[in-house]
Amino acid sequence: MSAMTQPETNPDEIVREAEKTVDLLGExxxxxxxxxxxxxxxxERALITLLSGGHGVLVGVPGLAKTKLVETLGTVLGLHARRxxxxxxxxxxxxxxxxxxxxxxxGRRAFRFIRGPIFAQLLMADEINRAxxxxxxxxxxxxxxxxxxxxxxxxxxxxxxxxxxxxxPLEQEGTYPLPEAQLDRFLMQIDILYPDLxxxxxxxxxxxxxxxxxxxxxxxxxxxxxxxxxxRRMPVGDGIIxxxxxxxxxxxxxxxxxxxxxxxxxxxxxxASQALMVTVRARALLDGRLAPSLDxxxxxxxxxxxxxxxxxxxxxxxxMSVQDIIRRAIEQAL
Length: 334
Description:
Layout: H1 11-33, H2 40-51, E1 56-59, H3 66-76, E2 81-85, H4 92-96, E3 97-103, E4 109-115, E5 122-126, H5 133-145, E6 147-150, E7 153-156, E8 162-167, H6 180-183, E9 188-191, H7 197-207, H8 221-233, H9 238-249, H10 258-261, E10 264-266, H11 270-286, H12 294-305, E11 310-311, H13 313-317, H14 322-333
Parallel strand pairs: 1-8, 1-9, 2-5, 5-8
Antiparallel strand pairs: 3-4, 6-7, 10-11
Keywords: Hydrolase
GO molecular function: hydrolase activity
Organism: Rhodopseudomonas julia
C-alpha cells in the first residue's frame, strides 16, 4: 500500500487540523522572534525537534542565547521548564531525585520520594558534557524510557517531556564528551553560530534600553501534544521515503560510494531514518505545507546525521569533516 494512503488517517481531518495549526505555529514563531534575534534556523530546528516529540543538543560557544532560547520556548509553548547546570560532581540523584527517611510526630518512620529537576516538561541540561558518564547515562536513560526508577518504584515523567542539552565546543578540559551511542538518543544536533551584522545591531538596540521584550504564552502542553500527534499522521510520499533511505544508507561504510567508503568510520543506524521521517513532516507543517518535500530532507539531513557518524583518521588528516561527507551524499542522493 502506498504511504500516501494510510488507512488510519482521515485526509480531510488532517487538512482541517493542519490549517488551524499553521496559524498557531505562526504566532509561536512571531512570539519567539520578539526575544531571539538573528537565529531563525536555530529557532526553526528547535521547534521542529519539539514538534517531532524529540530531544535536541545545542552546540555553540558561550553567549549565543542558548539558555535564553530554551527559556523562551518553555514560555511560548506553555511548558513547565527547568534548568540543570551540569558539573563534574553532579550525581544521578541530583537529577532524578531520591528517597529520604522522614519521621512523623508519633515516631513512625517512612521513606518519601523527593522529585528531582528532571520532572519537568522542558528540561535544559546546560553543558551536559561536564557531568560524569554515570550522570549522563542516568539522564539519557530517563529520556529514552520516559520514567525513572528509584528504590524499585517507577515514577513517570511529565508529558510531554523534552530535553534540550547544550555543549560548548571549545572548552574540552574537565569534560566528558557524550559517547556516540548516547548522542544517537538526541533527535537533532543544532549548531548555533554568531548572528549576522543586522541581527546583532537590532540586539544591541533592543536589549540595552529601558524596555525589553516580554515573552507571551501561545500554546499549552495539551495543544503541543495534539500537534505532535498531527505531525505523525501527516502523509509522506513514497518518493520522500525512498530519498530518506537512499541518503541515510549512502553514508554507511558498506554502502557508500567507493571514493567515500574508506573515509567513513561508522555511519548512522535506522534511528536516523526514523528521525528524518518525522522531522520532515514537522518542517513542512511549520512552513504551512501538508506534506514534506525533498527540500525538507535536504534541509534536515545535516542536523540529523552529523552526530550519528564519524570519519576515519585518514579523512581528518585530509581535512575532510563529517559535514563534508554529508553534503556530498546529499548531492548524490537527492
